[in-house]
Amino acid sequence: xxxxxxxxxxxxxxxxxxxxxxxxxxxxxxxxxxxxxxxxxxxxxxxxxxxxxxxxxxxxxxxxxxxxxxxxxxxxxxxxxxxxxxxxxxxxxxxxxxxxxxxxxx
Length: 106
Fold this sequence. Notes:
Mean pLDDT: 86
Number of strands: 0
Shape: elongated
Distance between the termini: 60 Å
Number of helices: 3
Radius of gyration: 18 Å
């Protein structure tokens, strides 16, 4: 029983998705600026969206594209709430360095 080979676009899209996700994860772990961390989280979400669309196109269905719509809605809500929290923290601490925020420590 032979396995069906994946189309070349699927392999390229998944490789690009992996690269974007890795760059976003490194940015989250290595950066200390809150805005940069939020941008890296958005890069990671877009990498997942790319993988969803690639798999959807590879399988010939619209399921992945529907999931992308929901991920984009959640990402927009996350960006709005996250930006509001960042603005509140910046007004209180006058910095956006993650190490200086200790409001939730006991």
